[in-house]
Amino acid sequence: MMEEKKSVLIFCEGPHDVALVSLILKKLLNASEFSDKFSALPSPFDKLFQTAIENHAKLELSLDMAHKFFLPDLILTKGDTYIVLFNAGGQNRGDKIKPFIQNLWDLTLVSDTFPGDATTYIKEHKYIFVSDADFKNHDATLADISSAFETVGGQSWINTSWNKINGTYIAINDKQKNVAALVWCNTTSGLGTLEDVLMECLDKDVAYQQAQGITIEMHDWQMEHPNPQRRIAEIAKMRKASITLMGQKIKPGGSMNVIVSQSKLINSGNLQTSPTVNNLVKFFLYFLN
Questions:
Q1: Among 143, 174, 229, 230, whose Cα sits 20 to 30 Å from the Cα of 132?
Q2: Pick from 85, 106, 111: which is nearest to 25 by CA?
Q3: By three-state DSSP, how is residue 30 classified?
Q4: 207 φ, ψ (degrees, to nearest 5)
Q5: Half-sphere exposure of residue 81, counting CA atoms within 13 Å on the CB side?
Q6: 278, pLDDT greater than 70
Q7: CATH annotation of 3-189+273-287
Q8: Which of 192, 194, 198 is nearest to 211 (CA)?
């Protein structure tokens, strides 16, 4: 008899989000990285990802267009749950994600009826959308997610009502309880980006302070710009540059997502100094079950 597994799909805006979320899951929730072949995944993931590779191989795409969006950046497991993380992009990501979700739904309907060679299957999925607040507030960011995913494949899906978890920037959709949204921001202003959360971990670190000082001295950052959108973007860029500089001794030439995920500068100790991270851990413990 086939064994049923669980699934949580996390759609991030970029590789930095994937790096931090996966680090939290591995360091603080003891999730393990799945490193086997796609064929070893539960149905319908085995067919879904193998088919994506075959379809991409048939297309005559330029190198810059042959992006692996329909393949996950990372798959983790925690108990019976498969956690699938995607770098889905920020702009117009609904147009990219919705066909994928529709295909997933279609294959899930027959995941236990026509499992192929799979020995396990998944019948239900949960979804988490990860976004920066940027210059918008929490409600506006949630409204953007609702607008992008109100319908999938012609079917009504999520609505515009969200149940916010008190004291956090995490919310669960009122209509679809299996859909959640995580918004990165400065917890005081409600505006900002992933880098605000990283500052909760690194702001008091002497090495980070030194790197930030060098970065500010070397370049002109318009961090006091009167336009909120420009100001928040400049602050985020400065912090990205500072974190990347901080990690160069350990990972020479490494990008920020490499620094976050592999340098050990962000670890279980300083992750737990972040209120946002601690709230996210509590949420994961609830939502992953």
A1: 174
A2: 85
A3: coil
A4: -65, -40
A5: 21
A6: yes
A7: 3.40.50.10620
A8: 198
Specify burial of residue 57 (Cβ count, 10 A radius: 0-12, 13-18, 19+): exposed
Residue 231 to residue 233: CA distance in whole angstroms? 5
Q: Is the pTM of this model over 0.85?
A: yes
Task: Write down the residue that tokens 């961090």 correspond to.
Answer: 223
Give the Cα separation of 120 and 136 in Å (integer): 42
The dihedral built from the CA positions of residue 160, 25, 236 and 273, taken in this order, carries a sign that is positive
- Write down the pLDDT at residue 84: 97
- Residues, the chain, total? 289
CA 183 to chain CA centroid, nearest Å: 10
pLDDT digits 0-9 by tens, 165-199: 999 999 999 999 999 999 999 999 999 999 999 99
The domain spans of the chain are 3-189+273-287, 195-271
Tens-place pLDDT, residues 217-241: 999 999 999 999 999 999 999 999 9
Characterize the bridge pairing of strands 3-12 and 81-87.
parallel
